[in-house]
Amino acid sequence: MVIFGVALLSICMLTGIFLGEMMGLSLGIEANVGGVGIAMLMLVLIVDYLKKRDKLSKAAQDGVGFWSAMYIPIVIAMSANQNVAGALDGGPLAIITGIAVVLISWMFVPILSKSKSQTSSENITVDNDIIGGKTTNVRNIK
């Protein structure tokens, strides 16, 4: 059911918005700084924590999964409310920051994919026994 998990989602959203507002105030900006991102990160971490300890029911997992998928349109709608033209009028810092973030992200892709492939290849064991079928040269990877 979709209603399950909404309390967890709303707690994360309200906490993230509050922390985003506090970050904005501490930086001297009258805006929410990363509140939705903080909420999304909290939701992912809390749901992972609860799943590992088997504290989240299947219905709650389905509800959280549905509402997590709804975050993408919410983020798009919230970003549409941002005054991008006003940010660019303030100076080139927005463009420089955006380019830097994209370049740094691109640099991390090979590093992360390399570490992932190394850990997954270490766990593969090869079993040469044939499990049914014809007697062909088939290797079963487990």
Descriptive report:
InterPro entries: Maln_transptMadL. It comes from Metabacillus arenae. The chain crosses the membrane at residues 29-50, 62-80, 92-112. One of its GO terms (cellular component) is membrane. With 142 residues, the chain is mainly alpha-helical. 69% of the residues lie in helices and 3% in strands. The protein has 2 domains: 1-82, no CATH class; 84-131 and 138-142. The protein has helices at 6-26, 35-52, 58-80, 84-89, 93-122; strands spanning 126-127, 140-141. α1 packs across α2 (35-52). The longest helix is centred in the C-terminal third of the chain and has 30 residues, at 93-122. The mean pLDDT is 77.
Helix and strand arrangement:
Layout: H1 6-26, H2 35-52, H3 58-80, H4 84-89, H5 93-122, E1 126-127, E2 140-141
Antiparallel strand pairs: 1-2
Organism: Metabacillus arenae
Keywords: Membrane, Transmembrane, Transmembrane helix
Transmembrane segments: 29-50, 62-80, 92-112
